[in-house]
Each structure stands twice: as C-alpha cells, then as structure tokens.
Amino acid sequence: MPYDEWKAITDAMYGGKISDHEATNQLVELLKKNGINQRSPDHDYLAASYFVYDKENWATQENKPLGLGLLYKKPDGTNTQDIFIAHPNGHIERYYSEQEMVEKYPSMVGVHKKTHPQF
C-alpha cells in the first residue's frame, strides 16, 4: 500500500538512515508508481518539505496522513508547489497549488513557508 511505503521512507529519513534528498527521490518514484508524475522539465526543482497532518479529526489517530510538498521555479521565474498527501487507506491526494489544498485543509496555510521561509 502506498501509505506503508511512504511511511517507511520518511521513517528512514527521520531516523537518519537516508538523506532527505534520497527520501525525496524515493517518494517521487513511489508517486510515479502510483500514476503521479512530477512537473515538466522546464520547471526547476528547488526544495521539498515533509509534514504529518495532525489537525482536525486526525489529531487522535495513530496513523496520520503524510505530506510532501515539492517546490519549483516556473519558466516565468515565479515559484509554485505541488502537494501530495498519502492517507492510511492508500489514497494519495494531489494539489497543484497551496490554495487548492487549503480549501480542504485550512490549517495548512503557509506550510511550506514554515519549512522554507526563503520561498
């Protein structure tokens, strides 16, 4: 199940067994395996942010949704972010703008700015 693989990757990263760069590469491969591709090559990859969603009704759950934000620079020079959220039931949500994600998860406003304030 994608969630179990995702959790194993991030657990290895948080445990110091793999670098965050390697975790990002493995998560991107996991997304591809599940039919989700990265941005086109004309977008420059900048950074990744990882999060565990523990708000609303997830606060008391043992297995919480796991998130990955991929930050890119678009050809016009502006930044953009793709957000992927793996749920314990195996579903992976994808959002191609923070605004899109915040409509469903209002408490996530500015999540990547907390990790990467330079963006």
TrEMBL record:
<protein>
    <submittedName>
        <fullName>Uncharacterized protein</fullName>
    </submittedName>
</protein>
